[in-house]
Amino acid sequence: MKSKCKLSVMLSMVLMGALISACGSASENGQNGGSKPAATAGTQKEETNAGNDSGKTSGNNDKTLDISMAYFNIGKAFPNRENDEFLKKLEKDFNMKVDDKVISYSDYQEKLQLWSVSGELPDVFSHDFINKETYYTWIEQGVIRPLPDDLSAYPNVEKVLSLPDTQNLKVDGKFYMIPRLTYRDNDSWALDKALVVRKDWMDKLGLQEPVTYEDYAAMLTAFAKKDPDGNGKDDTIGLTFRSSSMLTSIAMGTLPNVANGSWVKEDGQYIPYYAAESMTNVAVQMRELFASGAIDPDFAIMKTNDGIDKFGQGKVGALAGQATPNALKQYKTAWEKYNPDVKFEDAVAVIPVSWANEDGKRYRFTNVAFWSESYFSSAVDDEKMDRILQLYDYLLSDEFLTVKAYGFEGVDYKKEGDKFVITRDKNEDGTYVGFSEQYPSLHYLFGPLAAWNQQMEYEDSEINTINYGEDIIAMSHGALKHHLDNFDPIPTNYAIQFMYTPAKTKLGAINPSEDITKLMLGKGDPAAEWEKIVAGYDDKGLQEAIAEVNEKAKAEGIQ
Questions:
Q1: Helices 512-521, 279-291: inter-axial angle, 10-degree rounding
Q2: How confident is the model over 322-338, as pLDDT tens digits?
Q3: For an engineered disulfide with 289, which of 180, 294, 314, 334 has Cβ 3.0 to 4.6 Å away?
Q4: Angle of helix 398-406 versus helix 382-395 axis, rounded to 10
Q5: Cα–Cα distance between 216 and 80 in angstroms, integer?
Q6: pTM higher than 0.85 for the full model?
Q7: Of all helices (H) and strands (E), which one includes residue 371?
């Protein structure tokens, strides 16, 4: 390959009137929210509107094609194909049969690697390895195929690949994937890192909302040590986590880039965040918080979402996770299971995930507009690629967003002017039957296959009011506005973040989160231990990567 890659990303910072949850799952009573087609198109700036066209099929689809797919939740997508009207309509409209190859969040990397060796990769599969060594290796070896140069027949796909965050993701002038957009702007990530705290416990213990590291440490330790539930037992936890990815985010006040894993500029050169001088302070603080009892003693062995159940049981003072409408709804559901007589919104509050730095500045989470990508096996011929791209063009359309949110007109809803009136069946408790039961292929596969569309959670729509309730929406929207108005986004140079160099791709062998976990559980001097750990990264190519990146940045004029 002549020039492996030039991924120079200029971010689109478009403020949103209302906003999501990263990678939280869809609501059981619907999808990730919804909006009217016209409202979706009209509320986005032109350069970030990836869904204006209808996504109708563009070719002659006389031949029925079998298309194999592997997506994170696909194992739940086809419990009964004959009863899934969405699946039957989709397969008829595109004249295809979908063959599922099951992967999950816990095994997708291993399975896809195995299938790549055995020549059994599905036609379409999800992965998150862009800009990593395996990505370039698979391109060089012809494991994955490029998209056509001319995408004009698929206008919604073309728009996604023309966004500021994606238009320069080509390798040797070709796209080898379709990025799965999380939001349509970068500000909407703000509540993907937040703390949901027991404000009733804070009131009982006489605690004000924390600002400094010392404030956070005191609050979390008090939750664990001062019997905030008043039962006379030592059985409460200060801070727990929705997932392991939230662990070091609580220290973003000390080093903002620890939250999104980006490179920082220090002493005139770019370095990975974990090589920054202030990372030593992060290590010290994380050890202090754990040693003091502020952090869940079981954090290292917990599974994703275990923390939500602990919080619902009323044993945790603070949960580090998302604070989007969908996430808050999940927490509320867990809460009501154990606390039916205490209103969730009266007991909790959303506060920043981390403290202010020494200068009093606070940061909010931000990231590139997508997480994970769709790839296509090199065994896919041009005819099948055309059919797949027709499908993706539809899945990226505003027409599909309405289906994702509301289902089929005349079956699941009716229109009264501009208003959507839900008509689908209800459960015994009065809630609507969820699409996870009614259209499982939509809920678990096709809904998020081309894009997460988590911006839908923040839109003012009938389905969001049904899915989340007015109180949850008000809590999340208020927290979002506060974060956007008062906190700075993490300073991130995405041109550096997505830059390719041979040594940089090999840094995947370094796992700073795992090393921080071991350090927290240890007994030695955390500062000395961390410096030793970072010195060991040199054996994994750290200095070579730093040198290559800075040399290339200089050559390309990246400041």
A1: 40
A2: 999 999 999 999 999 99
A3: 294
A4: 60
A5: 49
A6: no
A7: strand 370-376
